[in-house]
Specification:
mainly alpha; globular
Amino acid sequence: MSTVTEFLAQVQAHEVLALLTLIAAIATDLKYQKIFNKLTFPVMAIGMAWWIYQGNPWFGVMGLAVGFGMTFPAFALGRTLRAGDAKLMMAVGALLGPAINFRACLMMYLISIPFGLAVLAYKGRLGNLLPALRAGIGRARGEEVADVETTVVAYAPVIGVAVIMAYFTDWLTFWGPL
């Protein structure tokens, strides 16, 4: 029996839904620069319901909480993530749990630096990087900061790569299985 066949025989419904959610989010983010609530909120609910059905109700809640805790600061302070990106990580966490989501968030931030710099360079916007960083630091300090022109970057592809890396590798694993 091939490795692919063995893998496919073990795939569960919530894992397929996580992949389909990532594909849909990447498509809408690339086309509309938006990840819609009508995608993320139902997936969060389904993820939590899945884990209740499996007899482990806190697993999905903890995964969702990890997604919120690790993405909200970037959304609130630096605006490097948009709300849809944060909600996508919460939905993925509700489906795949806290350990995979924690690692996916770490990988997302690591991947986002070269990805973001490449997109800014491609769009000729690297000169806006320092003013945007200063504004983010000012907001973090609670200062009133003038809006800086930002470049919208479709971030769902980065999230998709990070989740797939977290799922299929043991990179950034600091503990045993949860």
